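Reagents: none. Just compute today. Olfactory receptor.
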Amino acid sequence: MKLLWHNKWDRNHMMCSINTTNISFSTFILTGFPGLEAAHIWIAFFLCSLYIIALLGNCTVIFAIKTEPSLHEPMYIFLCMLSFIDLLLSSCTMPRMLGLLWFNWREIAFDACLVQMFFIHFLSALESGILVAMAVDRYIAICHPLRYTSILTHSSIAKIGLVIIGRGIAVMVPIPLLIKRLQFNRSNLLTHSFCLHQDAMNLACENIQVNIIYGLFVMLSVMGIDSLFIAISYILIIKSVISLATDETSTKAFGTCTAHICAVLIFYIPMIGLSVVHRFGNNSFHHTPIYMANIYLLVPPVLNPIVYGVKTKQIRNTIVKMLHHKRISRSKLCMHC
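Predicted 3D structure written out:
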């Protein structure tokens, strides 16, 4: 692993030595979908459709939880937080991407790239933390049901949210600062339609060992620990479910976790794949990170509200009730007209 990283830096250093100028680029150039430039307009329409679905789906979930008193429980409050994070995550990448695909707006200012980079990684850390909180919520609900309301009070939920935000800020603020210290006088062409730390640091004309080590630390201390806590929570849940008296009871208990398990898989599989390809990939599949990054950032905001809407009976019933009331209101309005 270290040999691969050193080889990458050595290649960058050799290329930089050819360019002796000390002037660093003030902008980055974003990349769309290589080889599919002729279809960028149609790809943009498809991505815009996904963005609209993500906006409508997550806003519907947030509105349903906010307006329905029976959903003011820890499980649904965490889901509301997840939907809000998904809204922000898709909104900080999609408009810029659509501008690139529709209008060929490829340039992004260096500082604007750093801001986008921070928010992408920060919101990803928040989403990972919320998924841990939801796993702990399911563990307490199934393994300690009598203590559920006393442990997960509104005050404790607010504290959990603040801890997740504080951790995200503390861990992710150094990322754009580590990029800002580097010189970029070899190339400013990014391989994505948005700014990622792994992508930008590979363009630098300096030793990026600190960036590599800190990026690995972030992965292990945030995503690694979070995935470990989620795994431990579900091991304890499975152990508790197996010990339940009847198969029907155990199936019902574990059924409350299916939506969360889907959300975890939707988030972690593309994220781990993207990280592995960025760090250990080679030129034989250099387009793979582009597609994986888009899946990682765009698919969870689209699928999460759909999964929870289908798998969670209370959410589904509330949405149906909202649509029914809206239909009745329209009918009454038409009658008066």
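The chain has a mean pLDDT of 84.
Action item: order primers for follow-up constructs.
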